[in-house]
Design a protein that fits this description.
Structural class of chain A: alpha+beta
Radius of gyration of chain B: 17 Å
Helix content of chain B: over 70%
Number of domains of chain B: 1
CATH architecture of the largest domain in chain A: Beta Barrel
Number of strands of chain B: 0
Shape of chain B: globular
Structural class of chain B: mainly alpha
CATH topology of the largest domain in chain A: Thrombin, subunit H
Distance between the termini of chain B: 18 Å
Order of helices and strands of chain A: HHHEEEEEEEEEEEEH
Largest sheet of chain A: 6 strands, antiparallel, barrel
Number of helices of chain B: 8
CATH class of the largest domain in chain A: Mainly Beta
Number of domains of chain A: 3
Distance between the termini of chain A: 107 Å
CATH superfamily of the largest domain in chain A: Rod shape-determining protein MreC, domain 1
Strand content of chain B: under 5%
Oligomer: heterodimer
Strand order of the largest sheet of chain A: 1-2-5-4-3-12
Shape of chain A: globular
Number of strands of chain A: 12
Helix content of chain A: 25-40%
Radius of gyration of chain A: 27 Å
Largest sheet of chain B: none
Number of helices of chain A: 4
Chain lengths: 299, 177
Amino acid sequence: MAVRSGSTPDYVGGLRRVLIGVVAVLLVALFLLWRIDNARVEQLRVSLIDRFVPSFAWTTVPLAATAHMVADLRAYGRVYEQNAELRRELQRMQGWREVALQLEQKNARLLALNNVRLNPRMTFVTGEVMADAGSPFRQSVMVNVGRIDGIVDGSAVMDGLGLVGRIAGVGERSARVILLGDGSMRAPATVRPSGQRAMVAGDNSPMPVLDFVEDSAEVRPGDQVVSSGEGGLYPADIVIGRVVAGPDGRQRVRLAADVRRLDFVRVVRGLPAETVEGPGGMIGPVAAHPDVLADGVEQ
Amino acid sequence: MTARALPAVAETPALVGLGVLAVLTVTMPLGPGGALVGPDLLYCLLVAWVIRRPARTPLWAIVALGLFADLMLSRPLGLGALGLMLVAEGFRRRAILFHGAPFPVEWAAAVAGFAVLLAGMHLALVVVFATPPGLVPSLRFLLVTALAYPLVVLGLAWCLRVRAPRAVSAYRMGRVP
Protein backbone atom coordinates (compact mmCIF):
# COMPACT_ATOMS: atom_id res chain seq x y z
CA MET A 1 0.00 0.00 0.00
CA ALA A 2 2.68 2.38 1.08
CA VAL A 3 4.90 1.36 -1.81
CA ARG A 4 2.13 1.76 -4.37
CA SER A 5 0.98 5.11 -3.14
CA GLY A 6 4.61 6.22 -2.94
CA SER A 7 5.55 5.12 -6.45
CA THR A 8 2.61 6.55 -8.40
CA PRO A 9 3.01 10.20 -7.38
CA ASP A 10 6.73 9.91 -8.01
CA TYR A 11 6.06 8.96 -11.63
CA VAL A 12 3.56 11.78 -12.01
CA GLY A 13 5.98 14.12 -10.29
CA GLY A 14 8.71 13.24 -12.79
CA LEU A 15 6.42 13.94 -15.74
CA ARG A 16 5.39 17.15 -14.09
CA ARG A 17 8.98 18.23 -13.68
CA VAL A 18 9.58 17.64 -17.40
CA LEU A 19 6.50 19.69 -18.19
CA ILE A 20 7.71 22.53 -15.98
CA GLY A 21 11.09 22.40 -17.67
CA VAL A 22 9.55 22.59 -21.13
CA VAL A 23 7.32 25.51 -20.16
CA ALA A 24 10.29 27.26 -18.54
CA VAL A 25 12.36 26.89 -21.72
CA LEU A 26 9.46 28.27 -23.79
CA LEU A 27 9.12 31.25 -21.46
CA VAL A 28 12.85 31.94 -21.58
CA ALA A 29 12.64 31.82 -25.37
CA LEU A 30 9.75 34.28 -25.24
CA PHE A 31 11.77 36.57 -22.98
CA LEU A 32 14.75 36.46 -25.33
CA LEU A 33 12.43 37.16 -28.26
CA TRP A 34 11.14 40.19 -26.36
CA ARG A 35 14.71 41.32 -25.80
CA ILE A 36 15.80 40.80 -29.40
CA ASP A 37 12.76 41.86 -31.38
CA ASN A 38 11.29 44.32 -28.96
CA ALA A 39 9.38 46.40 -31.49
CA ARG A 40 7.30 43.53 -32.83
CA VAL A 41 6.52 42.07 -29.41
CA GLU A 42 5.52 45.51 -28.13
CA GLN A 43 3.24 45.85 -31.14
CA LEU A 44 1.61 42.56 -30.17
CA ARG A 45 1.28 43.79 -26.61
CA VAL A 46 -0.34 47.03 -27.70
CA SER A 47 -2.79 45.28 -29.99
CA LEU A 48 -3.78 42.93 -27.15
CA ILE A 49 -4.22 45.80 -24.71
CA ASP A 50 -6.13 47.63 -27.40
CA ARG A 51 -8.50 44.68 -27.54
CA PHE A 52 -8.82 44.16 -23.80
CA VAL A 53 -8.57 47.41 -21.90
CA PRO A 54 -11.51 49.29 -23.46
CA SER A 55 -13.80 46.34 -22.86
CA PHE A 56 -12.62 46.16 -19.24
CA ALA A 57 -12.89 49.90 -18.72
CA TRP A 58 -16.29 49.52 -17.09
CA THR A 59 -14.74 47.34 -14.40
CA THR A 60 -11.90 49.67 -13.49
CA VAL A 61 -13.68 52.99 -13.89
CA PRO A 62 -16.13 52.66 -10.95
CA LEU A 63 -13.33 51.47 -8.66
CA ALA A 64 -11.08 54.32 -9.68
CA ALA A 65 -13.94 56.78 -9.26
CA THR A 66 -14.60 55.46 -5.75
CA ALA A 67 -10.94 55.79 -4.83
CA HIS A 68 -10.91 59.35 -6.14
CA MET A 69 -14.01 60.12 -4.09
CA VAL A 70 -12.38 58.77 -0.94
CA ALA A 71 -9.32 60.90 -1.64
CA ASP A 72 -11.57 63.93 -2.12
CA LEU A 73 -13.36 63.20 1.15
CA ARG A 74 -10.03 63.09 2.90
CA ALA A 75 -9.29 66.51 1.46
CA TYR A 76 -12.33 67.87 3.33
CA GLY A 77 -10.38 67.41 6.55
CA ARG A 78 -8.02 70.21 5.74
CA VAL A 79 -10.42 72.46 3.94
CA TYR A 80 -9.65 75.42 6.17
CA GLU A 81 -5.93 75.53 5.58
CA GLN A 82 -6.57 74.87 1.92
CA ASN A 83 -8.85 77.86 1.83
CA ALA A 84 -6.23 80.12 3.35
CA GLU A 85 -3.64 78.76 1.00
CA LEU A 86 -5.89 79.32 -1.97
CA ARG A 87 -6.52 82.90 -0.93
CA ARG A 88 -2.82 83.57 -0.69
CA GLU A 89 -2.27 81.95 -4.06
CA LEU A 90 -5.09 83.97 -5.56
CA GLN A 91 -3.46 87.15 -4.40
CA ARG A 92 -0.21 86.15 -5.96
CA MET A 93 -1.96 85.07 -9.14
CA GLN A 94 -3.68 88.41 -9.50
CA GLY A 95 -0.28 89.98 -9.69
CA TRP A 96 0.73 87.50 -12.33
CA ARG A 97 -2.48 88.09 -14.22
CA GLU A 98 -1.60 91.73 -14.59
CA VAL A 99 1.82 90.78 -15.85
CA ALA A 100 0.31 88.30 -18.28
CA LEU A 101 -2.16 90.82 -19.64
CA GLN A 102 0.57 93.33 -20.22
CA LEU A 103 2.73 90.73 -21.89
CA GLU A 104 -0.14 89.60 -24.06
CA GLN A 105 -0.73 93.12 -25.29
CA LYS A 106 2.94 93.56 -25.92
CA ASN A 107 3.11 90.26 -27.75
CA ALA A 108 0.15 91.16 -29.94
CA ARG A 109 1.80 94.46 -30.79
CA LEU A 110 5.07 92.81 -31.69
CA LEU A 111 3.37 90.10 -33.73
CA ALA A 112 1.48 92.73 -35.66
CA LEU A 113 4.73 94.57 -36.28
CA ASN A 114 6.47 91.47 -37.52
CA ASN A 115 3.60 89.95 -39.46
CA VAL A 116 4.54 86.59 -38.01
CA ARG A 117 2.91 83.38 -39.17
CA LEU A 118 2.86 80.92 -36.35
CA ASN A 119 3.17 77.25 -37.14
CA PRO A 120 -0.45 76.22 -37.75
CA ARG A 121 0.32 72.56 -38.16
CA MET A 122 0.70 71.64 -34.55
CA THR A 123 -2.66 70.39 -33.37
CA PHE A 124 -3.61 68.35 -30.34
CA VAL A 125 -5.77 65.39 -29.63
CA THR A 126 -6.83 65.15 -26.04
CA GLY A 127 -7.21 61.72 -24.55
CA GLU A 128 -8.03 60.22 -21.21
CA VAL A 129 -5.65 58.04 -19.25
CA MET A 130 -7.13 54.54 -19.13
CA ALA A 131 -4.57 52.42 -17.35
CA ASP A 132 -1.33 52.64 -15.51
CA ALA A 133 1.62 50.39 -16.19
CA GLY A 134 1.20 49.17 -12.62
CA SER A 135 4.70 47.83 -12.19
CA PRO A 136 8.04 49.39 -11.40
CA PHE A 137 9.51 48.13 -14.66
CA ARG A 138 8.04 50.77 -16.91
CA GLN A 139 6.71 54.23 -16.33
CA SER A 140 3.96 54.33 -18.87
CA VAL A 141 0.23 54.89 -19.15
CA MET A 142 -2.39 53.88 -21.69
CA VAL A 143 -4.51 56.58 -23.30
CA ASN A 144 -7.77 56.12 -25.16
CA VAL A 145 -6.75 57.74 -28.42
CA GLY A 146 -5.10 55.75 -31.15
CA ARG A 147 -4.47 55.39 -34.82
CA ILE A 148 -7.99 56.42 -35.80
CA ASP A 149 -7.33 59.77 -34.13
CA GLY A 150 -4.26 60.29 -36.25
CA ILE A 151 -1.67 59.42 -33.65
CA VAL A 152 1.63 58.00 -34.77
CA ASP A 153 4.51 56.44 -32.91
CA GLY A 154 6.75 59.07 -31.38
CA SER A 155 4.21 61.87 -31.02
CA ALA A 156 4.94 64.11 -28.06
CA VAL A 157 2.45 64.01 -25.19
CA MET A 158 1.76 66.94 -22.85
CA ASP A 159 -0.62 67.71 -20.10
CA GLY A 160 -1.90 71.25 -19.67
CA LEU A 161 1.48 72.54 -18.54
CA GLY A 162 4.36 70.59 -19.87
CA LEU A 163 5.81 67.62 -21.61
CA VAL A 164 4.73 64.25 -20.24
CA GLY A 165 6.41 61.80 -22.59
CA ARG A 166 5.95 60.32 -25.98
CA ILE A 167 3.88 57.70 -27.71
CA ALA A 168 5.43 54.26 -27.95
CA GLY A 169 3.03 51.77 -29.41
CA VAL A 170 -0.19 52.68 -31.16
CA GLY A 171 -3.29 50.54 -31.40
CA GLU A 172 -6.49 51.31 -33.25
CA ARG A 173 -8.15 53.00 -30.29
CA SER A 174 -5.45 53.22 -27.67
CA ALA A 175 -1.83 54.12 -27.37
CA ARG A 176 0.92 53.70 -24.83
CA VAL A 177 2.69 56.76 -23.48
CA ILE A 178 6.18 56.31 -22.09
CA LEU A 179 6.66 58.94 -19.40
CA LEU A 180 9.73 61.13 -19.18
CA GLY A 181 10.75 59.42 -15.95
CA ASP A 182 11.15 56.05 -17.64
CA GLY A 183 14.65 54.64 -17.77
CA SER A 184 14.67 54.50 -21.55
CA MET A 185 13.60 58.09 -22.16
CA ARG A 186 15.89 60.84 -23.43
CA ALA A 187 14.64 64.25 -24.45
CA PRO A 188 16.88 66.96 -25.94
CA ALA A 189 16.35 70.17 -24.01
CA THR A 190 17.48 73.75 -23.64
CA VAL A 191 18.03 75.31 -20.25
CA ARG A 192 16.87 78.90 -19.93
CA PRO A 193 18.05 81.57 -19.47
CA SER A 194 21.62 80.37 -20.05
CA GLY A 195 20.72 78.61 -23.29
CA GLN A 196 22.69 75.49 -22.46
CA ARG A 197 21.85 72.37 -24.44
CA ALA A 198 21.25 69.29 -22.35
CA MET A 199 19.54 65.93 -22.33
CA VAL A 200 16.71 65.09 -19.95
CA ALA A 201 17.29 61.43 -19.13
CA GLY A 202 14.77 59.36 -17.20
CA ASP A 203 16.01 56.90 -14.59
CA ASN A 204 12.77 55.38 -13.27
CA SER A 205 12.49 58.05 -10.60
CA PRO A 206 9.93 60.87 -10.48
CA MET A 207 12.58 63.44 -11.35
CA PRO A 208 14.67 62.74 -14.46
CA VAL A 209 18.36 63.63 -14.59
CA LEU A 210 19.74 66.58 -16.55
CA ASP A 211 22.52 64.95 -18.49
CA PHE A 212 25.13 66.03 -21.03
CA VAL A 213 25.02 69.67 -20.05
CA GLU A 214 27.59 71.67 -22.00
CA ASP A 215 28.70 73.70 -18.99
CA SER A 216 26.97 72.60 -15.84
CA ALA A 217 28.30 75.59 -13.89
CA GLU A 218 25.98 77.78 -15.94
CA VAL A 219 22.92 75.81 -14.94
CA ARG A 220 21.43 76.71 -11.58
CA PRO A 221 18.53 75.25 -9.66
CA GLY A 222 15.37 77.07 -10.67
CA ASP A 223 16.31 77.46 -14.32
CA GLN A 224 13.61 76.55 -16.77
CA VAL A 225 14.04 73.52 -19.01
CA VAL A 226 12.25 73.46 -22.36
CA SER A 227 12.44 71.02 -25.22
CA SER A 228 14.93 72.09 -27.84
CA GLY A 229 13.29 70.39 -30.81
CA GLU A 230 16.56 68.85 -31.90
CA GLY A 231 16.28 65.60 -33.74
CA GLY A 232 12.66 66.33 -34.54
CA LEU A 233 11.30 64.09 -31.79
CA TYR A 234 9.57 66.84 -29.84
CA PRO A 235 8.37 70.21 -30.98
CA ALA A 236 10.60 72.99 -29.73
CA ASP A 237 9.84 75.16 -26.70
CA ILE A 238 7.51 72.87 -24.81
CA VAL A 239 8.05 73.38 -21.11
CA ILE A 240 9.61 70.35 -19.43
CA GLY A 241 10.24 71.65 -15.93
CA ARG A 242 12.72 73.33 -13.63
CA VAL A 243 16.23 72.40 -12.59
CA VAL A 244 16.63 71.19 -9.04
CA ALA A 245 19.69 69.89 -7.25
CA GLY A 246 18.99 66.23 -6.59
CA PRO A 247 19.79 64.58 -3.27
CA ASP A 248 22.60 62.67 -4.95
CA GLY A 249 24.25 65.89 -6.12
CA ARG A 250 23.19 65.53 -9.75
CA GLN A 251 21.10 68.12 -11.45
CA ARG A 252 17.58 66.88 -11.93
CA VAL A 253 14.44 68.24 -13.53
CA ARG A 254 11.24 68.72 -11.56
CA LEU A 255 8.65 68.14 -14.24
CA ALA A 256 6.10 70.86 -14.91
CA ALA A 257 3.56 68.22 -15.85
CA ASP A 258 1.81 66.59 -12.93
CA VAL A 259 2.68 63.04 -13.88
CA ARG A 260 1.40 61.62 -10.64
CA ARG A 261 -2.10 62.75 -11.36
CA LEU A 262 -2.56 62.45 -15.07
CA ASP A 263 -6.20 62.48 -16.09
CA PHE A 264 -6.19 63.99 -19.52
CA VAL A 265 -3.23 64.32 -21.80
CA ARG A 266 -2.75 66.15 -25.07
CA VAL A 267 -1.06 64.26 -27.85
CA VAL A 268 0.66 66.54 -30.34
CA ARG A 269 -0.55 65.60 -33.78
CA GLY A 270 2.18 67.33 -35.73
CA LEU A 271 2.43 66.56 -39.38
CA PRO A 272 6.04 65.89 -40.31
CA ALA A 273 7.71 69.11 -41.38
CA GLU A 274 8.56 69.42 -45.01
CA THR A 275 12.17 68.54 -45.55
CA VAL A 276 14.33 69.90 -48.30
CA GLU A 277 16.04 67.00 -50.00
CA GLY A 278 18.94 67.73 -52.24
CA PRO A 279 19.64 70.89 -54.17
CA GLY A 280 16.90 72.54 -56.19
CA GLY A 281 16.78 72.12 -59.93
CA MET A 282 18.01 75.61 -60.69
CA ILE A 283 21.02 75.54 -58.41
CA GLY A 284 22.00 71.95 -59.13
CA PRO A 285 24.90 70.97 -61.34
CA VAL A 286 23.61 71.72 -64.79
CA ALA A 287 26.11 69.56 -66.64
CA ALA A 288 24.85 66.43 -64.90
CA HIS A 289 21.34 66.87 -66.32
CA PRO A 290 21.60 67.81 -69.97
CA ASP A 291 17.86 67.19 -70.55
CA VAL A 292 16.95 69.77 -67.93
CA LEU A 293 19.17 72.25 -69.69
CA ALA A 294 17.63 71.34 -73.02
CA ASP A 295 14.10 71.84 -71.68
CA GLY A 296 15.09 75.19 -70.31
CA VAL A 297 16.53 76.29 -73.65
CA GLU A 298 13.49 75.19 -75.61
CA GLN A 299 11.06 77.22 -73.55
CA MET B 1 -17.88 24.89 9.10
CA THR B 2 -21.46 25.48 8.10
CA ALA B 3 -20.62 27.73 5.18
CA ARG B 4 -20.14 25.90 1.91
CA ALA B 5 -16.71 25.76 0.38
CA LEU B 6 -16.31 26.22 -3.35
CA PRO B 7 -17.01 23.01 -5.29
CA ALA B 8 -13.81 21.54 -6.71
CA VAL B 9 -15.00 21.99 -10.31
CA ALA B 10 -15.47 25.72 -9.87
CA GLU B 11 -12.09 26.30 -8.28
CA THR B 12 -9.98 26.68 -11.39
CA PRO B 13 -12.38 29.12 -13.12
CA ALA B 14 -12.56 31.06 -9.87
CA LEU B 15 -8.78 31.21 -9.71
CA VAL B 16 -8.50 32.42 -13.31
CA GLY B 17 -11.24 34.98 -12.81
CA LEU B 18 -9.66 36.28 -9.62
CA GLY B 19 -6.27 36.42 -11.32
CA VAL B 20 -7.60 38.52 -14.19
CA LEU B 21 -9.34 40.75 -11.65
CA ALA B 22 -6.10 41.08 -9.67
CA VAL B 23 -4.19 42.22 -12.77
CA LEU B 24 -6.91 44.67 -13.77
CA THR B 25 -7.09 46.10 -10.26
CA VAL B 26 -3.44 46.98 -10.42
CA THR B 27 -3.87 48.75 -13.77
CA MET B 28 -6.51 51.06 -12.36
CA PRO B 29 -5.49 54.62 -13.16
CA LEU B 30 -5.19 55.87 -9.59
CA GLY B 31 -1.79 57.47 -9.61
CA PRO B 32 -0.33 56.96 -13.03
CA GLY B 33 3.37 57.55 -13.45
CA GLY B 34 3.93 58.33 -9.81
CA ALA B 35 6.04 56.54 -7.30
CA LEU B 36 2.86 54.87 -6.07
CA VAL B 37 3.13 51.22 -7.07
CA GLY B 38 0.32 48.81 -6.41
CA PRO B 39 1.00 45.41 -4.87
CA ASP B 40 1.50 42.36 -7.03
CA LEU B 41 -1.91 40.94 -6.20
CA LEU B 42 -1.54 38.15 -8.72
CA TYR B 43 1.51 36.83 -6.91
CA CYS B 44 -0.28 36.96 -3.55
CA LEU B 45 -3.30 35.19 -5.00
CA LEU B 46 -1.34 32.43 -6.70
CA VAL B 47 0.94 31.71 -3.76
CA ALA B 48 -1.93 31.70 -1.27
CA TRP B 49 -3.91 29.44 -3.56
CA VAL B 50 -1.11 27.02 -4.33
CA ILE B 51 -0.33 26.63 -0.63
CA ARG B 52 -3.98 25.84 0.13
CA ARG B 53 -4.79 23.78 -2.95
CA PRO B 54 -1.46 22.30 -4.06
CA ALA B 55 -3.07 19.50 -6.03
CA ARG B 56 -5.73 21.60 -7.71
CA THR B 57 -3.81 24.55 -9.09
CA PRO B 58 -3.22 23.75 -12.75
CA LEU B 59 0.10 24.74 -14.24
CA TRP B 60 -1.51 26.21 -17.34
CA ALA B 61 -3.52 28.62 -15.21
CA ILE B 62 -0.37 29.91 -13.51
CA VAL B 63 1.47 30.35 -16.81
CA ALA B 64 -1.52 31.92 -18.56
CA LEU B 65 -2.13 34.37 -15.74
CA GLY B 66 1.58 35.21 -15.63
CA LEU B 67 1.66 35.92 -19.36
CA PHE B 68 -1.53 37.96 -19.12
CA ALA B 69 0.02 40.04 -16.33
CA ASP B 70 3.23 40.45 -18.35
CA LEU B 71 1.25 41.75 -21.29
CA MET B 72 -1.05 44.03 -19.36
CA LEU B 73 1.49 45.46 -16.93
CA SER B 74 4.14 46.02 -19.62
CA ARG B 75 6.63 43.88 -17.83
CA PRO B 76 9.37 42.01 -19.70
CA LEU B 77 7.34 39.45 -21.62
CA GLY B 78 7.82 35.88 -20.43
CA LEU B 79 10.12 36.76 -17.56
CA GLY B 80 7.35 37.52 -15.08
CA ALA B 81 5.46 34.37 -16.02
CA LEU B 82 8.62 32.30 -15.67
CA GLY B 83 9.41 33.67 -12.24
CA LEU B 84 5.83 33.28 -11.09
CA MET B 85 5.71 29.68 -12.29
CA LEU B 86 9.00 28.70 -10.66
CA VAL B 87 8.10 30.27 -7.33
CA ALA B 88 4.61 28.77 -7.41
CA GLU B 89 6.03 25.33 -8.15
CA GLY B 90 8.45 25.72 -5.28
CA PHE B 91 5.56 26.52 -2.96
CA ARG B 92 3.52 23.67 -4.37
CA ARG B 93 6.21 21.17 -3.40
CA ARG B 94 6.51 22.62 0.08
CA ALA B 95 2.79 23.27 0.56
CA ILE B 96 2.46 20.47 3.08
CA LEU B 97 4.95 22.24 5.37
CA PHE B 98 2.64 25.22 5.71
CA HIS B 99 -0.53 23.31 6.46
CA GLY B 100 0.17 22.98 10.15
CA ALA B 101 2.31 26.08 10.50
CA PRO B 102 1.07 29.37 11.93
CA PHE B 103 0.29 32.10 9.45
CA PRO B 104 3.36 34.34 10.06
CA VAL B 105 5.59 31.51 8.86
CA GLU B 106 3.65 31.28 5.61
CA TRP B 107 3.65 35.05 5.30
CA ALA B 108 7.42 35.28 5.75
CA ALA B 109 7.90 32.50 3.22
CA ALA B 110 5.67 34.25 0.69
CA VAL B 111 7.54 37.54 1.12
CA ALA B 112 10.88 35.75 0.84
CA GLY B 113 9.62 34.07 -2.33
CA PHE B 114 8.68 37.44 -3.75
CA ALA B 115 12.07 38.89 -2.88
CA VAL B 116 13.74 35.98 -4.66
CA LEU B 117 11.42 36.55 -7.64
CA LEU B 118 12.32 40.25 -7.85
CA ALA B 119 16.02 39.56 -7.44
CA GLY B 120 15.87 36.90 -10.15
CA MET B 121 14.10 39.21 -12.57
CA HIS B 122 16.61 41.93 -11.79
CA LEU B 123 19.46 39.55 -12.48
CA ALA B 124 17.90 38.31 -15.72
CA LEU B 125 17.43 41.87 -16.94
CA VAL B 126 21.04 42.73 -16.10
CA VAL B 127 22.26 39.63 -17.92
CA VAL B 128 20.50 40.61 -21.16
CA PHE B 129 21.57 44.26 -20.79
CA ALA B 130 18.06 45.59 -20.28
CA THR B 131 17.38 48.35 -17.79
CA PRO B 132 16.30 46.83 -14.47
CA PRO B 133 14.01 48.85 -12.20
CA GLY B 134 15.67 50.90 -9.51
CA LEU B 135 16.33 49.52 -6.06
CA VAL B 136 13.97 51.87 -4.22
CA PRO B 137 10.89 51.15 -6.39
CA SER B 138 11.62 47.43 -6.12
CA LEU B 139 11.84 47.57 -2.33
CA ARG B 140 8.64 49.60 -2.19
CA PHE B 141 7.00 47.03 -4.46
CA LEU B 142 8.16 44.25 -2.12
CA LEU B 143 6.86 46.09 0.93
CA VAL B 144 3.45 46.82 -0.58
CA THR B 145 3.10 43.24 -1.75
CA ALA B 146 4.09 41.96 1.70
CA LEU B 147 1.37 44.10 3.24
CA ALA B 148 -1.19 42.92 0.70
CA TYR B 149 -0.54 39.22 1.23
CA PRO B 150 -2.47 38.78 4.53
CA LEU B 151 -5.41 40.68 3.05
CA VAL B 152 -5.52 38.37 0.05
CA VAL B 153 -5.32 35.33 2.31
CA LEU B 154 -8.05 36.73 4.51
CA GLY B 155 -10.25 37.37 1.50
CA LEU B 156 -9.69 33.86 0.18
CA ALA B 157 -10.33 32.22 3.52
CA TRP B 158 -13.45 34.18 4.44
CA CYS B 159 -15.19 34.85 1.17
CA LEU B 160 -14.34 31.74 -0.80
CA ARG B 161 -13.52 29.31 2.00
CA VAL B 162 -10.25 28.45 0.35
CA ARG B 163 -8.41 27.08 3.35
CA ALA B 164 -5.84 24.44 3.96
CA PRO B 165 -8.19 21.68 5.14
CA ARG B 166 -5.83 19.83 7.43
CA ALA B 167 -4.66 22.88 9.31
CA VAL B 168 -8.19 23.99 10.15
CA SER B 169 -9.38 20.56 11.31
CA ALA B 170 -6.28 19.93 13.41
CA TYR B 171 -6.65 23.33 15.03
CA ARG B 172 -10.31 22.79 15.76
CA MET B 173 -9.73 19.31 17.10
CA GLY B 174 -6.98 20.55 19.31
CA ARG B 175 -9.24 23.13 20.84
CA VAL B 176 -12.29 21.03 21.50
CA PRO B 177 -11.13 19.38 24.74
